[in-house]
Amino acid sequence: MNLDSIHNVYFIGIGGIGMSALARYFHANGKRVSGYDKTPTDITEGLIDLGIPVHFEDSVANLDDYLLNSTNTLVVYTPAVPKDHKELVYFNNSGYRVLKRSQILGLITENTFCLAVAGTHGKTTTTSILGHIMRVCDVPVTAFLGGISENYNSNLILNGTDVTVVEADEFDRSFLTLSPNIACITSMDADHLDIYGDASELEKSFQDFAHKLKEQGKLFVKKGLPIKGLTYGIEEDSDYSIHNIKIENGTYIFDVKTPKIILENLEFNLPGRHNLSNALIALAMAVEYGCPHQQIAKALASYQGVKRRFSYHIKRDDLVYIDDYAHHPQEINAVHQAVREMYPGKQVLAVFQPHLFSRTRDFADDFAASLSQFDEVMLLDIYPARELPIEGVTSTWLLEKIGNKNKVLISKSELINKVKASQADVILTIGAGDIGEQVKNIKHALSHED
Length: 450
What we know:
Number of strands: 21
Distance between the termini: 61 Å
């Protein structure tokens, strides 16, 4: 399909983080963009501020007249939208070109030099670091991010169209629509078992992704993963590796060994070894692309992070409040490591909202082990997202498995008062559901304590 022949682009689920980046992209390229979403959010408000109409009622009557021409209109939807969605049914039955978000990314990137970041953890942060490096190096890049970059206050970095940086999402095997020039796989931990059934099928999909590289393409894999490629790792014997790590005033300072040279005294401000690993692979992909080492170092030092990825909201001597998107046991372990490294000896409270009944069921013991590491745990009800409840899978069931005795199940209405009553020095809110919408209220309450 020739995207140049498309004049109108309509999004069903426009408020999704990946969907809204595409909406911004098409808007910036002169297309007429509009869309539907279930509820207003900061993301939909930002789109409306750009001049992109968004409505919140599923009704064909809400569609603008210009969308009625099916020949020059493209409809994009997210798999999270139910199949009986009235607008989606109308477009499917009326001869429109209706494509998933992942298919559109495949079309946009196929005629560009594409750098793709795959992995069950670390995709969004790595993609945003890489996009930032490319922008600082003045590469003509478009970077589609799965989060809001603190540097650009956007999920889209736009500096040209010759090069694309994208997240290669394993959910629903979406990443198999891509054909990258340079790609990486950061991790292959079991996840999305509601889609894949078991971990071996998930691993097979990553093997399939590795075969999607263009001819002469380069694949990076984290040291230890069962896929061949250039390797990277922290303090390991790999093609790209980090050594001599120091922490000064909350900043990592380290050296990187590449296949050709050693880069000394690089600086990076995000806490946690997992973020150091993300920075390393972004650096490695940028080096292989041809970015100058000095500019890469400048970009790493100026990188500010992604919203809801170890985001500081209060940072005082007597109280720290951090919010993070972690929704898998390994991600919670990474957050725990970062907090303990930055705040040794401090009392840490974790407020966790489990995401998906199936994920909670599949990894219950691992969730319990990761949460037990904190000094205090508050558990919210499971956020269902796209799922119906599963009998016996509840936050009460998960709470019983947590070994830490200082634990409690709370409702959203109790959240503020319970958090305020805690004696913890460091407070974390963790999860991929709507817990992120509580951050402003928690920050306000903690900042205005009596």
